[in-house]
Design a protein that fits this description.
This protein is an all-beta fold. It folds into two domains: 290 residues, YVTN repeat-like/Quinoprotein amine dehydrogenase (Methylamine Dehydrogenase, Chain H); 101 residues, Immunoglobulin-like (Sandwich), CATH 2.60.40.2550. The chain is 0% helix and 44% strand. The protein contains no helices and 37 strands. The strands form nine sheets. The chain has a five-stranded antiparallel sheet with strand order 1-34-33-36-37, with no helix packed on it. Strands 2-29-28-27 form a four-stranded antiparallel sheet, with no helix packed on it. A four-stranded antiparallel sheet has the order 3-4-5-6, with no helix packed on it.
């Protein structure tokens, strides 16, 4: 049985992290602070890559923004309690990191002095980082290594630029046949099957990059690619879009998420249900049902890059680095359906259905007049798990909230509704019990 999540005290979001608008009939959640703990890092540079190999050992890299004009590789051996600088380079940047094991790590970017890729490699856990010479005009915007020798990189500096190495970066072969646009993201599921994001177009190869075929064309730019297996994959895009395929990229659907602005720059699925996504904001997004619904948590370090070793232990980085050991705590969801516009005679909170339930249930309520609505979910000991608050008055009628409790333990929970006139005047309040059985 999963451990009950410990919920931090209620607090309001800072302005920059508050959604600016919602569609009519949507509930704007109040927020419970997530359990993302900010760590102390030895440099004040934006984090551009982060990867952990186990619960203790991880690396992160930065760009060269600000003064001094240097980019850094930092390392921890104790989960991020302490970070140390392992390498730095002047007038260059790092943008991608690929960790093979506790000894072998690649870190890549661009060297402005030599107009070529800034590619570093360690084979002893970072005690020494060796500069690997690369061809002129090669840059690394994204990079993935499947083992110590075989890897791919892409860059948007010279249009379509995808390259592969089979000897640990000593030699790189251009593999762009079929790609026409600037390339910015690369993902390989295995040695033969890979995907490349080129502006708003997705390309796929089944022969290790010898040929690329256009798989899909979107309106949004592709900023993150993740495939769980040969069929199941996700794209993180601009304009707050998360796209999902169940047939290897032949067809894509857009998954609903609570993001109002920004872009998805990182996305990873941990198992058959739980996944995380992030971008340049103070949100980190979480799903407990393969993306059928996404909620969010608050991360004060930003979530431009994320790394998880299991469903609950993870790190995120942008303005700094944060760490969670319990999956980030409570998830805030947004999801309300207008069931019926007929005006009811009274305020009413219905019994949730199904009940008992396994993971998902529906909470229905009726409003005889337009009202502000607040709904709480809390456990038997009184600890709040989720809170919804309408950003404006909901119109009279019958409404339904869809609640996903996939990350909660089996047990008795309560849900309560408070209806007000938009001020402190309460019109209606009621609480009911529901039972989660897994």
């Amino acid at each position: 049985m999963k451990k009950l999540l410990l919920i931090l005290l209620f607090a309001f979001l800072r302005f920059s992290a508050v959604p600016l608008f919602f569609s009519a009939g949507c509930l704007l959640p109040f927020h419970l602070h997530s359990q993302w703990v900010q760590q102390t890092v030895p440099v004040s540079k934006p984090i551009t890559g982060i990867k952990f190999i186990d619960a203790n050992t991880g690396w992160a890299c930065t760009d060269n923004t600000g003064s001094p004009n240097r980019a850094y590789i930092i390392y921890t051996s104790n989960s991020g309690t302490n970070w140390i600088i392992q390498d730095s380079v002047n007038n260059a940047t790092y943008g991608a990191i690929s960790v093979i094991n506790n000894n072998t790590v690649y870190c890549g970017g661009y060297d402005f002095s030599s107009n070529s890729a800034n590619l570093k490699k360690t084979t002893n856990g970072g005690l020494n980082w060796v500069l690997i010479p690369t061809p002129t005009n090669m840059a690394i915007a994204d990079m993935v290594f499947l083992n110590e020798d075989s890897g791919w990189s892409c860059s948007s500096n010279v249009g379509a630029d995808v390259r592969t190495t089979t000897n640990g970066g000593l030699n790189w072969i251009v593999r762009t046949s079929g790609i026409l646009q600037q390339t910015q993201k690369i993902f390989f599921l295995n040695y033969n099957t890979g995907y490349c994001g080129a502006n708003s177009q997705l390309y796929k190869t089944t022969n290790a990059g010898l040929n690329w075929n256009q798989a899909s064309v979107f309106v949004e730019q592709i900023n993150s690619i993740f495939f769980k297996n040969i069929n199941t994959g996700w794209l993180g895009c601009t304009n707050r879009k998360i796209k999902f395929t169940a047939n290897g990229g032949l067809n894509w659907i857009e998954q609903p998420n609570p993001l109002i602005f920004g872009t998805i720059n990182s996305l990873i699925m941990i198992n058959d249900s739980i996944g995380y996504a992030g971008g340049r904001s103070l949100y980190i997004y979480k799903t407990t049902n393969l993306g059928n619904s996404w909620g969010y948590q608050i991360d004060s370090s930003g979530s431009f890059r994320i790394s998880f070793i299991d469903t609950i232990k993870g790190w995120s980085g942008d303005f700094g680095i944060s760490h969670t050991t319990n999956g980030g705590g409570a998830i805030t969801y947004v999801g309300i359906i207008n069931i019926n516009t007929n005006i009811p005679n009274e305020y009413k909170l219905f019994q949730n259905y199904p009940n008992p339930f396994n993971s998902q249930t529906n909470i229905r309520f009726s409003l005889p007049k337009s009202s502000s609505v607040r709904i709480k979910i809390y456990e038997i000991a009184g600890k709040e798990k989720s809170i919804w608050q309408s950003d404006k008055e909901l119109e009279a009628g019958t409404h339904e909230l869809q609640f996903d409790a996939n990350d909660l333990s089996s047990g008795v929970y309560f849900y309560s509704i408070t209806v007000s006139d938009g001020t402190s005047n309460t019109r209606f309040k009621e609480t009911k019990k529901m039972v989660l059985v897994k």
